[in-house]
Write a structure and sequence with these properties.
By secondary structure, this protein is α+β, with helices and mostly antiparallel strands. The chain has a 7-stranded mixed β-sheet, with helices on both faces. The chain has a 6-stranded antiparallel β-sheet with strand order 1-2-3-4-6-5, with helices on one face. Strand 14 and strand 15 form a beta hairpin. The longest helix is centred in the first third of the chain and has 21 residues.
């Protein structure tokens, strides 16, 4: 809130038909805004640069006050700051020592996201005065910070016993309204208490949303009795907007009785207070959120007008494009179900229209005419220590040269530290456990190498376990494919797939260890990874053995080629003909028509392209099509670097959330719909080509690093966000994810 003794700055939104904002944001039109760096006018002043809630960079001369530690915010320092000639703000900044805690930066970012969401939605409305007003932020500074207008009024704890019945009712009603407004943004404040809520005689003002969570996320333990609900204090279940209503109920009791309750359920003497009878009968004092009324019902009970009932903020700029997404899904379904071209496979024969997972060799049959005996890889059990390896599959397609490879013990080799291939002869070994262990680390030469070709080999488990799944990351140079793959496999290594019933082991222990050391660990230590070099032969970057529920493990291999190799229709990309699934990696800096990205584009030397990603086009033109002219292989379109647009509502809705602990097809569909609408609204149609061309394609907001690199390092470390979402989606479509039905035509 503003200081009444300070002058009001000019504001864009004012005009004859629009009242002046009583709490205008600080923006580039402020007369004290420094448009160019310069020498501060006073030795006590420094310069402070930050972004407004609209992501506009501004710079002010600033003078700081003394630091103090705000309660309930470990690792954060607060101080008053004076911008320009006398604008007072509050700064909360994350100290350098607190940044050793990997959660600290995430909590500040979550606070800023909540404050910006509130400001963008309600900042121009009079009722928005119940919330703190964000001035700006910089999450990339050496000490990341957020700025707010200083509050007016005094904490409710100082008003105890001094408020009349009318003021008590107004406070309760305004708190219920605040809960209603936050619920409409899917936010739970979680810090509503007498010492954090202020009253100035006419309106309440909540404290900064430093404890806010997204509705539906697993509750994090926070708060103390009686103000935080029992479920919130214990961290049980999912965050619910009605958690804040428990706090409202406890404050209402406190203001009337003059003392706090125990906080376990309805106060023992609740019946003695007739003015609270209606609240008690509504279930507001229930210790279970599900038994409390929603905020809108509470407002009706309190006879408080609902500001959202008038349609405030109801216009959805993405609504048209969400409807377009539904039409495109219907279009692709019609193409799949309609009559196919001459020579097209019959319904059910294609991987994208089959009700059950079609074996990998159905692809070989179409290209090479392979026999049916090769289509039973899942019947081959995995070699286990202490037992002789089972007979291998008769043949398996080499993912490099796209030719079938039959298991042959004469072609077994090991690879030493210098890359030399050493023949492996196990004919004299009689100990089954030793044989199994040797095969786990061995390679099988591909017999199709001809003069002039690069010799290549396959990990033995690729030929002796379940049906392989090859995944290629597609995108031009510098879109972040290498960082995304490293972040994905880092999350896998940390057990990120286990909640979904999946167990992962290395396809080859030595190769996997090298990848972890050179890529994953480097990224986790905050180092920027080098660009992927161009190749003369496509080799996969790493591989996993993925199993579900004790079933035979399936090899999953990941290809990460240089963008230049993917954009050229050359021999190095011929392996694309046999890839099972694709992750198309989109760079917002190249795709989005958002002016907030212009400074980052200028800094990185990247330019926006309306023609889309040339690697997308080249790859999509090369891979096989099915009935209706659609690409058969499942795909995911990953909007990488989404942290650059994290405060856009459609992005914030997903990027701010953790992945759920189970596969939720409805959530996947909703995220795809939001991402499609966001891209359709802010980018040219060319960037949606993977979705348009692929029979099954989900869309996801992800961030491989969570921030921009400075030099060769990420100043606040790498903070991956939702990087497993595209992989889980592909696993679901390919029948690898427990509880997810293999795709049957268009399932999203």
């Amino acid at each position: 809130m503003t200081d009444p003794n300070q002058p009001n700055p000019p504001h864009h939104g004012e005009g004859p038909d629009r009242p002046a904002d009583p709490y205008p944001p600080i923006d580039p039109d402020h007369p004290d805004h420094l448009r160019e760096p310069g020498t501060p006018t006073h030795p006590y002043y420094q310069e402070l640069e930050f972004l407004t809630h609209e992501e506009v960079p501004v710079r002010f001369a600033v003078r700081y006050g003394e630091d103090h530690r705000p309660p309930g915010r470990p690792g954060v320092l607060a101080r008053r700051a004076t911008l320009g000639a006398g604008w007072s703000v509050l700064q909360y900044r994350l100290t350098a020592s607190a940044q050793d805690d990997p959660r600290a930066h995430g909590l500040l970012e979550r606070e800023v996201a909540a404050a910006i969401a509130v400001e963008r939605r309600y900042g121009q409305q009079k009722f928005g005065a119940v919330f703190p007003r964000i001035v700006g932020h910089d999450l990339t500074a050496a000490e990341p910070f957020v700025l707010y207008r200083p509050p007016t009024g005094r904490p409710l704890s100082e008003w105890a016993g001094r408020l009349g019945a009318e003021d008590q009712e107004r406070i309760t009603g305004q708190l219920a309204m605040a809960g209603r407004l936050l619920a409409d943004l899917d936010l739970v404040h979680r810090a509503v208490a007498p010492d954090t809520v202020r009253w100035d005689g006419s309106r309440v003002r909540l404290c900064e949303p430093y404890a806010a969570q997204r509705a539906g996320e697993a509750r994090e333990p926070f708060g103390a009795a009686p103000w935080a609900s029992p479920e919130q204090r214990a961290g049980r279940g999912a965050a619910d907007p009605r958690d804040d209503l428990w706090s409202v109920a406890q404050i209402a009791y406190y203001l009337l009785s003059g003392r706090p309750d125990r906080g376990d359920g309805p106060p023992a003497d609740l019946a003695d207070y007739r003015r609270l009878a209606a609240l008690a009968q509504s279930g507001l004092y229930s210790p279970h959120a599900a038994e409390r009324p929603p905020a809108a019902d509470l407002m009706r009970l309190l006879h408080v007008p609902d500001p959202l009932a008038t349609g405030i903020g109801a216009a959805d700029p993405l609504g048209r494009w969400r409807a377009e997404y539904d039409l495109q899904i219907a279009r692709k379904r019609a193409l799949l179900e309609g009559p196919g071209p001459v020579g097209a496979p019959p319904p059910g024969a294609d991987r994208a229209s089959a009700g059950t997972r079609v074996p990998r060799t159905s692809f070989l049959d179409r290209i090479f005419g392979g026999g049916q005996e090769a289509a039973r890889p899942d019947t081959v059990p995995e070699p286990t220590p202490g037992a002789a390896p089972a007979p291998p599959s008769p043949s398996r397609m080499c993912p490099h040269c796209l030719l079938p490879v039959a298991y042959d013990e004469r072609l077994l080799v090991t690879i030493d530290a210098k890359g030399n291939r050493i023949p492996l002869d196990l004919s004299a070994e009689r100990r089954p456990g030793h044989v199994a262990d040797a095969l786990r680390k061995a390679y099988h030469l591909c017999p199709h190498t001809v003069d002039g070709d690069e010799e290549h080999e396959l990990p033995v488990p690729y030929l002796t376990t379940g049906e392989p799944l090859s995944v290629a990351l597609v995108g031009s140079s510098s879109v972040g494919k290498t960082h995304l793959l490293a972040a994905m496999l880092g999350e896998v290594e940390l057990g990120g797939l286990e909640p979904y019933g999946l167990k992962c082991r290395p396809l080859n222990p030595d190769a996997h260890r090298t990848y972890l050391r050179e890529r994953v660990q480097s990224l986790q230590q905050g180092r920027q990874l080098g660009r992927t070099g161009q190749q003369t032969f496509a080799r996969f970057a790493d591989g996993l053995l993925v199993s579900a529920g004790g079933a035979t493990p399936r090899p999953v291999v990941f290809f990460d080629l240089a963008g230049e190799d993917l954009a050229q229709d050359g021999e190095v990309g011929r392996f694309l003909m046999g890839v099972d699934a694709f992750v198309f990696v989109l760079d917002p800096l190249r795709a989005l028509r958002l002016s907030s990205l212009d400074p980052v584009r200028a800094q990185s030397g990247l330019r926006r392209r309306d023609l889309g990603d040339e690697a997308f086009t080249t790859v999509l033109n090369r891979i096989p099509r099915q009935r209706g002219g659609l690409v058969a292989a499942p795909a995911a379109l990953a909007v990488n670097k989404s942290d650059l647009v994290r405060f856009e509502p459609a992005v914030d809705r997903w990027l701010a959330r953790s992945l759920p602990g189970r596969h939720d097809p409805a959530a996947v569909r909703d995220e795809s719909r939001d991402a499609y609408a966001f891209l359709a609204h802010h980018a040219s149609a060319a960037w949606l080509k993977p979705f348009d061309d692929c029979a099954d394609c989900t869309l996801h907001f992800v961030a491989a690093t969570g921030g921009q690199a400075r030099g060769d390092r990420f100043p606040h470390g790498a903070r991956p966000r939702r990087v497993l979402a595209p992989l889980l989606s592909l696993f679901a479509m390919c029948g690898l994810l427990p509880g997810a039905e293999p795709r049957e035509g268009i399932v999203r």
